[in-house]
Design goal:
This protein has 182 residues and is an alpha/beta fold. The chain is 30% helix and 17% strand.
Length: 182
């Protein structure tokens, strides 16, 4: 399965979830820095808008140009409560190259830094923040493919987590697409 196919399927499920939030319980999150086990744990019944490959996702253009530039994540979920982008999802296919840029400034790292600096925690009042990677399980077990993702998770897990009231409550997690029942 390609990253594009995963993106389209995931977008379709998210669109259905706007009227039936229980669908979010079927999209599991593994190897997470947070306590959410699925998208329901991040979103619940909160209303959201979906941006799929649309430059309009960045409602703060011109801010942090070195970090985000003209990059567009595969999927962005924006809260209708706060108007903030709360969840960024990248989608990768089984043999798809990991990311642009270097390991320390990869797309994954840039999306995390953007979310950290451009949004507020708002724990309990809004959709929780997350940077998620949706890919088939083999992608995560391939050291070449997962190297950049693993770097993000290992390097920023303490900053991201909120397990001990430290950190900023930005979940870093994996959506193992082949384990999703759609």
């Amino acid at each position: 399965m390609t990253g594009e196919q995963i993106k389209v399927c995931l977008r379709d499920q998210l669109q259905k979830a706007q009227t039936d939030p229980s669908i979010l319980k079927n999209i599991h999150i593994t190897n997470s820095t947070g306590d959410a086990e699925d998208l329901w744990g991040l979103i619940g019944k909160s209303p959201f808008d979906i941006f799929c490959d649309k430059s309009e996702w960045n409602n703060k253009k011109g801010v942090m140009p070195e970090i985000i530039g003209n990059m567009t994540p595969d999927i962005v979920l924006r809260s209708r409560v706060s108007g903030q982008n709360r969840i960024i999802i990248e989608c990768k296919g089984t043999r798809e190259k990991p990311t642009r840029f270097g390991i320390a400034d990869s797309q994954f790292v840039r999306f995390f830094l953007w979310l950290l600096t451009m949004t507020e925690s708002r724990r309990g009042q809004d959709i929780r923040r997350a940077v998620l990677l949706a890919a088939p399980s083999p992608w995560f077990t391939d050291n070449e493919m997962s190297r950049y993702w693993n770097y993000l998770c290992e390097t920023y897990q303490l900053i991201a987590s909120y397990k001990t009231n430290e950190g900023f409550d930005i979940t870093l997690g994996e959506i193992r697409w082949d384990a999703i029942s759609v």
